[in-house]
Write the structure tokens for this entry.
Amino acid sequence: MTVVTARARQALVMGGTMWRYLSNYVLIFFLLAFSCFIFLLHNIQSVEKWNCHAISALYQLQTKIHSSLVPGSLPTFNHNHSFCAHVGQKPSPEDKLEERFLLDSIAWPGPPPHSKPTSLHQTSDPVHSLFTILPYKGGREWHVGEQLEALVQIHDFQGRPKHYGGDFLLARLHSPELGASVAGTVVDHKNGIYSALFPLLWEGSMQVEITLVHSSEAVAVLQRLREERPDRVYFKSLFRLGFLSETTLCNMCLPSTHHPLCNYTDLYTGEPWYCYKPKMLSCDTRINHAKGGYLKHLITNKEALLFQSDVNIKVPIHASGTNSISVLPPRDNVEEESCSVKPENIQPAPSGYYYKDSWRPLSGDALRQFNETSAVIECLRNKVINMFGDSTVRQWFEYLIDFVPELKEFNLHSPKNVGPFMAVDSVHNILVKYRCHGPPIRFSTVMSSELRYISNELDSLPGGSNTVVVISIWAHFSTFPVDVYIRRLRHIRRAVLRLLDRAPDTLIVIRSANLQALDQEVSLYNSDWFSLQLDMVLKSMFKGLNVLMVDAWEMTVAHHLPHALHPPPAIVRNMINMFLNYVCPEKNKS
């Protein structure tokens, strides 16, 4: 016992010595950790000034890590036709009247309730459908300045003619050997029969092309999704303070029954935007904005059959008989250039057409071609070009800096494809800028400080004869009810009018919507049918104002190249050419 006790006593002494030794180091460790924490808190502002690329990469990494914090089951919304009608500024009686007019003007016929098909076999089938070219006023000849009509009869998959309208068709008249083409106007007779109308603008052989984009039954599904599920694209934001970070859901409106909300409604326009409040952080710690993703399983298996590539999405309809005609000179036999047809003689009138692969406005005046870098530089000399909107106008910015080497892009350390971007030609005093529009922008991560509404940006411009403004805003509104888009355009239009009031010689150019490639998934979120409706609203709201339009819709309908969200260079070149003709009109032309 004596030996054991001595050994135990020796162990206790050694243990106590060791504990005192370790406790000193533990105390030093905690003191160092606490000092580092205080240092980081004190220098948090300095951390914010790190290189923007490193910060952006860090944020994106954090976003991926914290995406798991986003609820797996997204909030459900009330399925009604006044989604989030309470958000935003209350419209005036005049605004409500205009909205009603615009919505009525784009009303789309649908299948009658008693005619609702029970299977795919009863829906529109482009293979069984046919079109016929009608003779001109009972004759057999067509002349420049007249109008061609093709009659389309839609049949179902069983070959039976349909007796109601609502199908989404595209029509095109083209002469491949001449590089000439024009978009047609489709008239729905609401009985399964459609008229495709084309102005005859040049001589020679030409072909009619009719395409079924969506069946009437598919359009009815798209219409329901637009009104009832505007949340099918959702957004998120990263909130950060020091080492704490959280990611929450965001959208134009969110059900407040799930979590408290952070309100980011714009103070000037009243444009609404909300995020769910983080659990541990305050609303003013929001760092960025990003597309969260796309909701899946929005339609039934039966409805999915209505959206099949090469079956009923963008499939050509064949002719019953010939699909081509030969167009002769004008009947008055007056020798004049084929492209000098007067717009008032053509109904309905397109905005322009291609001839020798170059876009021409319907006035018939061949546009000045800016094929040389020196011509573009001379046109833009002493100009400030302000581009606002989505990636389809960012494409213009990229085209110009690629085409004009003298335009040097200034490194703003902006994330790729997001911006803002700026290019300068200091020798010729040219400045070209691009900035994306505010929410619901679907880009990858955008810093919160860079989220700007176009109307507010326009209000900050002094304007003047050397100021050019380009606006393109449509692609990111396809998932929302049209009244949301109307509200956004109304704010932009008011800002445009204010700018023109203080600087009437400011040039304002609007780029319209364009067609894109479609499959089932893209159709549910970005169908050309959504874009067509927005395009019609855009043109109506800016009609009669002192603004100029680049009609990207007709330029992509008429062209032979495949449809793409970002049109191919041949089409962009024609858009830029039209834009430069607006900036630098020839002196002998109005």
In short: The domain at 114-214+314-345 is CATH 2.60.40.10 (Immunoglobulin-like). Residues 2-42 form the longest helix (41 residues). The first strand starts at residue 124 and ends at 134.
